[in-house]
User: Fold this.
Amino acid sequence: MSQHHYTGAILSHIEGFGQVYDCGNCGNLHVQIGPMNLTLEPRAYMQLVDMISTSAANFETWMQQKRVHQEVRDDNQERYSS
Assistant:
């Protein structure tokens, strides 16, 4: 019986959501979210990280703009319905 020495690592884990890990065998990174699994080469993983970081920054800006537009709509509706 051969013994397997585990050399992988969990890089991030959120209980009930998913994890990012290196299995230690294939040289790729694994992104698991719920039932979905992505296996990415390190360069592709870093591109994904960059894309998500950029989208998170843009999302915050977008949400702020959306809030301002909603406040203007609410003010206009209040003004014209009185």
